[in-house]
Design brief:
Length: 126
């Protein structure tokens, strides 16, 4: 697998080098042009972010950051709550199916947890 990946990368490098030579440049020239354009894009994004930060100000920026953090935390809490609720629903269904199976065959040995046995004993005594 690694050999095929190495061959693929090597072939890609050779093809890009041949393409650069056809257009009258070397691989270093192409890399410089690509790198330069990436740096220009990064500089433009950085400038626009700095302008936006100056417009908004530090107080509003912190309020926005806190609101963004609250949205993320709320999403995590909501997902955990929904998963726990779904798990509880499933466990209730499993218990109901288990009770039905035990009622159908009362001579089978019952595999229950200690908490289930205590709850059953408590229901009988009260």
């Amino acid at each position: 697998m690694m050999a095929s990946v190495k061959d693929l990368v090597s072939n890609f490098g050779c093809a890009s080098s041949d393409l650069a030579k056809r257009f009258g440049g070397s691989t270093a020239d192409v890399a410089k042009n690509v790198g330069g354009s990436a740096a220009d894009i990064a500089r433009n994004v950085g400038d626009s972010a700095a302008k936006l930060a100056k417009k908004v100000g530090p107080k509003r920026g912190l309020i926005g950051l806190v609101a963004f953090g609250a949205v993320i935390a709320g999403t995590v809490v909501l997902v955990r709550y929904l998963r726990a609720r779904q798990e509880d629903d499933l466990s209730e269904e499993e218990l109901a199916l288990n009770e039905q199976a035990q009622a159908a065959d009362p001579h089978r040995r019952r595999k229950t947890t200690r908490a289930q046995r205590k709850a059953a004993a408590e229901r009988m005594t009260h």
